[in-house]
């Protein structure tokens, strides 16, 4: 069954809502799903449809500086990137409030995303214990380490970063799941990462899983990887993520 797609503005946040028509006014589990760097909500719509087919309400926001909110990327490396994640974190509860006011906010809420959206997902899992589960596709649970990677690349390519770069992104450590993995608290979290990823280091995800999957708080981590896959999500992975969300949100109703 093809879900319907509803275009909404939630306090000036452009979103697409994807839901089966017969469930549009029902309280059903919710997934807020975030796109990646320099893309838009429309580019994760295929994933949104697959999730909605599982009986889930899917909300796809445009991050700040993206999609309908597109702005020129700052000439200062990574400024716009961090600003966009920061915006996602700030606006998360606004989206929940919108669903609550409509009377459709279910007690089971998940977050997910691709690349930058995967980083958003892991950050939200740190600060929101009410979240049921998460999906991080080719993102990183270690954003501070990713910031260090940005610094290294800037040095290698002679780009200027501010001298107080890590002070300017000092908020990141408070949302870094790799620094406080116990915050996962046994909740299901699905990771996928391609070993040939040229944008976000595979090792950041693999190291996190290796260190934490055997711990009580990490017992429901699911990790999939692909030997030759680069920074791209393919259809079979979307279907596996959809099944994971169904199992964590719908099947245990």
Give me the number of helical elements. Answer: 7
- The ordered H/E elements are EEEHEHEHEHHEHEH
The count of strands amounts to: 8
Percent helix, as a range, is 25-40%
Task: Write up what this structure looks like.
- This protein has 7 helices and 8 strands.
- The chain has helices at residues 45-52, 79-102, 116-127, 143-156, 165-168, 202-212, 235-250; strands spanning 4-10, 13-19, 28-34, 57-61, 105-114, 133-137, 189-194, 221-226.
- An 8-stranded mixed sheet has the order 1-2-4-3-5-6-7-8, with helices on both faces.
- A hairpin with a 2-residue loop joins strand 1 and strand 2 (13-19).
- The longest helix has 24 residues, at 79-102.
- It is globular and about 55 Å long.
- The two termini are 21 Å apart.
- The model has no long low-confidence stretch (mean pLDDT 95).
List the helices and strands and how they pair.
Layout: E1 4-10, E2 13-19, E3 28-34, H1 45-52, E4 57-61, H2 79-102, E5 105-114, H3 116-127, E6 133-137, H4 143-156, H5 165-168, E7 189-194, H6 202-212, E8 221-226, H7 235-250
Parallel strand pairs: 3-4, 3-5, 5-6, 6-7, 7-8
Antiparallel strand pairs: 1-2, 2-4
């Amino acid at each position: 069954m093809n879900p319907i797609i509803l275009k909404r503005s939630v306090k000036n946040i452009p979103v697409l809502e994807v839901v089966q028509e017969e469930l549009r006014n029902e309280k059903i589990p919710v997934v807020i799903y975030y796109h990646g760097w320099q893309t838009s909500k429309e580019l994760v719509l295929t994933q949104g449809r697959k999730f909605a087919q599982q009986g889930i309400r899917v909300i796809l926001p445009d991050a700040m500086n993206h999609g309908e909110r597109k702005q020129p990327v700052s000439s200062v490396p990574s400024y716009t990137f961090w600003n966009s994640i920061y915006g996602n974190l700030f606006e998360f509860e606004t989206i929940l409030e919108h669903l609550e006011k409509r009377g459709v906010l279910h007690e089971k809420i998940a977050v997910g995303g691709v690349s930058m959206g995967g980083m958003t997902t892991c950050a939200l899992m740190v600060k929101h214990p009410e979240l049921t589960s998460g999906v991080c596709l080719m993102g990183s649970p270690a954003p501070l380490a990713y910031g260090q990677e940005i610094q290294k690349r800037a040095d290698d390519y002679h780009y200027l970063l501010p001298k107080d770069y890590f002070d300017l992104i000092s908020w990141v450590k408070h949302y870094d799941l790799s620094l406080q993995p116990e915050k996962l608290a046994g909740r299901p979290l699905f990771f996928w990462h391609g070993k040939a990823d040229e944008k976000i280091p595979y090792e950041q995800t693999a190291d996190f899983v290796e260190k934490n999957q055997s711990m009580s708080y990490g017992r429901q981590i699911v990790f999939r990887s692909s030997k030759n896959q680069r920074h791209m999500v393919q259809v079979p992975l979307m279907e596996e993520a959809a099944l994971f969300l169904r199992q964590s949100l719908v099947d245990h109703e």
